[in-house]
Specification:
Layout lengths: L9 H10 L5 E5 L1 H13 L8 E5 L5 H6 L5 H10 L2 E4 L2 E3 L4 E2 L3 E3 L2 E7 L2 E8 L1 E7 L2 E8 L4 E7 L1 E9 L2 E2 L2 E2 L4 E8 L4 E4 L3
Length: 194
């Protein structure tokens, strides 16, 4: 076991990948920490031979929920060590990052498309993008009655008035007017039960 800083970078993760030979790389941390490690795996072209296990430190982790991980950290660690890696859709964004848990924006005014479908047009209380089986899954909540609509596809494009995007639990440093999420060409080898 090797301790690395929060949201580890190239100098922290790349040496671990050089020594890995098909053994699982287990991330104990936040969704942002998991994303930082997966970005390095992706950039080193090691998605096909580097299984990833995850032990979330936040019980409300969206990635843990998506992966169906046990709530108890000891059980999550046991799964990460002993579970069978399976391919899981990897979602990238247009800034070079990966989406492991959720990207949330809200309130937001603009429009979004998921493949050829309009996900929303106008104003929404919240707009949430998560990895899904085929790529991305989008959930939009609108109005005082909190009407919810959902759509899935390979990619999602959002154009909006300046809004803060919170991805993997981390707010983007400045308001954005557009963002795209899309399924990567190669899956992640994830150790999960969900």
């Amino acid at each position: 076991m090797r301790e690395v800083p929060a949201e580890p970078g190239r100098n922290d993760v790349d040496p671990l990948l050089e020594g890995a030979s098909g053994e699982p790389l287990i991330v104990v941390g936040t969704d942002a920490d998991l994303a930082a490690v997966v970005v390095r795996i992706m950039r080193k072209n090691r998605l096909g031979d580097t299984p990833v296990g995850y032990v979330p430190v936040d019980p409300a982790s969206p990635a843990a929920r998506l992966w169906g991980l046990p709530a108890d950290p000891a059980d999550a660690l046991a799964l990460a060590r002993d579970g069978e890696p399976r391919p899981r859709a990897l979602v990238r964004d247009d800034s070079g990052g990966v989406l492991m848990g959720a990207a949330t924006i809200g309130p937001v005014t603009g429009e979004a498309y998921c493949d050829d479908l309009v996900a929303f047009r106008g104003s929404a209380r919240s707009f949430v993008v998560q990895p899904g089986a085929g790529g991305v899954h989008v959930r939009v909540v609108r109005g005082l009655l909190r009407r919810t609509s959902e759509v899935s596809g390979r990619a999602c494009q959002l154009g909006c008035h300046p809004a803060t995007v919170v991805q993997n639990g981390v707010p983007h440093p400045r308001p954005l007017t557009r963002r795209t999420w899309y399924r990567h060409t190669e899956d992640l080898l994830a150790i999960h039960s969900g």
